[in-house]
Amino acid sequence: RINLKLTNVNFQFGGVAIVGLAVWALLDKVPWIGELVGNDLLTGAIYVLLAGGIIVAIISFFGCIGASREVKCMLLTYFIIVFLLFVTMLIGGVLAYVFREKLVDTLQREMSSSMRVYDSRKSVREAWDTTQSTLHCCGVSGWRDWGSLGLNVPQSCCREIQPGQRFNCNAGPDTVNPSNAYLEGCINGTQIYMQKHATIMGGAGIAVACLMV
């Protein structure tokens, strides 16, 4: 009985940790940047792990009660649900790692494709603005990418003076003021950013799944 209680306490900590990491990833603009790569695998994995973490924490609590009172029906239900949650957490972790591997092959193509609909799709525009302002970059390979598509350099490519206020770095068609603009492309920063989050979420999901074995 004591061993089962300790196991459930570990499950609870694992579930809470997964929920915390998933919320952090969602608040850390992963869904926005994911819009640029044309792949929802990582965002989907985060939501799977978030749901799984919440259920693990709740079920572990009832598992403690079942172990304390030795309610056989509750314990049987608990073990079935734990097995299903193990599969869920494992799937979430694997999805994150699959995304990590696919990212390298498709990143440049998908980011370049999304630039073409910057003006016409609000979600893409917000994703690009968030990416450029967060990672301090501009375009895929550099700021000239916007001009090559016949688009003006977005304001999000301009350096920040203070929160909510940016320089006007657009000096004319195909021209920026280099001292007021982010000149480097976003592809390297985006790849590192997304792979970091995919590694953390994938590792956490698989670790909690192993804890449940």
Automatic annotation (TrEMBL):
Cleaved signal peptide residues: none
Pfam families referenced in this protein's UniProt entry, alphabetically: Tetraspanin (PF00335)
Gene Ontology CC, one term: plasma membrane
Transmembrane segments: 9-27, 47-68, 75-99
Disulfide bonds: C137-C169, C138-C158
Subcellular compartments: Membrane
Topology term for the membrane: Multi-pass membrane protein
Superkingdom of origin: Eukaryota
Main location: membrane
UniProt entry keywords in alphabetical sequence: Disulfide bond, Membrane, Transmembrane, Transmembrane helix
InterPro entries named among the record's database cross-references: Tetraspanin/Peripherin, Tetraspanin_animals, Tetraspanin_EC2_sf
UniProt keyword annotation of Transmembrane present: yes
Family: Belongs to the tetraspanin (TM4SF) family.
PANTHER family attached to this UniProt entry: TETRASPANIN
Protein name: Tetraspanin
